[in-house]
Amino acid sequence: FPSTGLSLEEIRNLTKPFGKVKDILIVSSHKKAYVEISRKSADSMVKFYTCFPMWVERNQLCISLVPELKDLNEEVIFTAMIKDANSDVNTEMLYTQFVHLGNLPDEGYSELEILCVGLRFGRVDHYMVITNKNKAIFQLNSAESAASMCRFLKKYPYSLGEVELTVSRSPRIEPTAADAVKKEVKKQEAGQESPDLKTIPEGSGVVPPSAVPPTEATEDHGSNSDAIPDTQTERLGSEKMVR
């Protein structure tokens, strides 16, 4: 990217001839953008700009495929950037050190101002600013520093200009409100299932007892008692007659 970066509209114009765009992340801190489109469209786009390079402010854009990304997951992209910078890092536990800042202003701030928010709570090893999503992600030097930063900023919110920032940890540690609602709905739906359906596996061919309508015989046990002959009485009577 050029030093001034590219706008969302400029990136859309680059991709428009090749197909529908599903999502875009503009990572201004790393002078990169990630575009999610179909694989066929992505192949065509890369081939075209390889043959006909695009220049912006004397900077040639480098356009390539990132096949390891299935979707534009921000933490996955951030982790990959950290891994590129330090191949020895333990990526399995990185998310414990992540802090998400949201509701950034559209403009009127510098990345240094964003970085200083995290530096108040410890060393910031890496950070990523996503301008078109109005958010940033920090990797602090420890999970304790990340937890301390979140606790403090939730109690004493930080404002950038006239905008109050939101703060949260990785969704793997601190689920978002939307995720919490989804879990609660699933829990309620599971509790409303019939107990017979839980104990009898689907496809077993067994009909749950609650699904079988009651028959007349089971409804009225005494209605046919008169129609059933008393065999013992009749047998005794016939024996008397023979004698």
UniProtKB/TrEMBL annotation:
<dbReference type="InterPro" id="IPR012677">
    <property type="entry name" value="Nucleotide-bd_a/b_plait_sf"/>
</dbReference>
<dbReference type="GO" id="GO:0003676">
    <property type="term" value="F:nucleic acid binding"/>
</dbReference>
<dbReference type="InterPro" id="IPR035979">
    <property type="entry name" value="RBD_domain_sf"/>
</dbReference>
<feature type="compositionally biased region" description="Basic and acidic residues">
    <location>
        <begin position="180"/>
        <end position="190"/>
    </location>
</feature>
<feature type="compositionally biased region" description="Basic and acidic residues">
    <location>
        <begin position="232"/>
        <end position="243"/>
    </location>
</feature>
<feature type="region of interest" description="Disordered">
    <location>
        <begin position="178"/>
        <end position="243"/>
    </location>
</feature>
<protein>
    <recommendedName>
        <fullName>RRM domain-containing protein</fullName>
    </recommendedName>
</protein>
